[in-house]
Design a protein that fits this description.
By secondary structure, the chain is mainly alpha-helical. It is 74% helix and 0% strand. α3 packs parallel to α7.
Length: 252
């Protein structure tokens, strides 16, 4: 199946509808959704503890921001769960992990692309860290910008990372869901994603900010990520279906 036609023009109201649908889908399979999210929570906690332990506490926000860029690839698991529920099939955790493991090559190409951008982000943030902080910080308080020095560092890292994150978002926000749905090739899916963002840029920007703030806040309160991650994943699936509806996979 290919990507047809012009993306639907959307309004800001879709943000609220998407989150509502995501929450409703989460409630319908909360246990398995949280179980799948648990793996990402453990990885995130490990990265945070490791970064503070080696004395680079101020790098935690940049690391978390980079970790968020892998979110699109995890969509394969949540899409499998949601598709099974819609079809009335049993919803099991192994279904989500199997979907990620057997995701098509284009999806993993997007994962490699995200990894490359993360490395650029962390390299830039590390360079900025050496110039603006330049000392080992083993305390958890250093994760937050509680001094003028740390505030400048976090602001600089956020500006650099924000630009890279916008590139990743524009390329992946629709291409990964489309590829998971079996619509189009890597090139056509990426082109469709960029076209959709450009067609409703400020609405997509609002969605990006909503996702970033929600996920970032929940990562600092890691247990909350068990709920937030699946909710935004299901909401993102609904978002993609609203922009690229088709006869087989309508926005029910």
């Amino acid at each position: 199946m290919s990507v047809h036609g012009i993306p639907e023009k959307i309004s800001l109201a879709l943000i609220g509808r998407s989150l509502h649908r995501g929450w409703r889908d989460f409630l319908g399979m909360a246990a398995v959704s949280m179980g799948f999210a648990a793996g990402f929570v453990v990885i995130g906690l490990g990265l945070m503890v490791g970064t503070v332990t080696v004395g680079m506490g101020p790098m935690v926000p940049a690391l978390i921001g980079g970790f968020m860029l892998f979110g699109p690839v995890s969509m394969a698991g949540y899409h499998a769960l949601l598709s099974a529920r819609r079809a009335g099939h049993p919803v099991r955790l192994r279904l989500a992990y199997g979907a990620m493991r057997h995701a098509g090559r284009p999806v993993w190409v997007m994962g490699v692309f995200c990894s490359f951008i993360v490395l650029i982000w962390l390299t830039d943030a590390g360079t900025l860290y050496s110039f603006m902080v330049g000392q080992w910080r083993h305390d958890w308080l250093s994760v937050l910008p509680h001094t003028s020095q740390l505030l400048r560092f976090h602001a600089g890292a956020a500006i650099m990372g924000g630009g890279l994150a916008l590139i990743v978002y524009t390329v992946t926000v629709h291409s990964v869901p489309l590829l998971i749905r079996g619509q189009g090739t890597l090139v056509t899916a990426v082109t469709a994603s960029v076209r959709a963002v450009g067609r409703s840029f400020f609405v997509h920007l609002g969605w990006a900010v909503t996702l970033a703030l929600t996920v970032m806040a929940s990562i600092f309160l890691l247990p909350a990520l068990l709920v937030v991650l699946p909710v935004v994943a299901y909401a993102s699936i609904y978002w993609n279906e609203a922009v690229f509806p088709d006869a087989e996979n309508g926005t029910r």
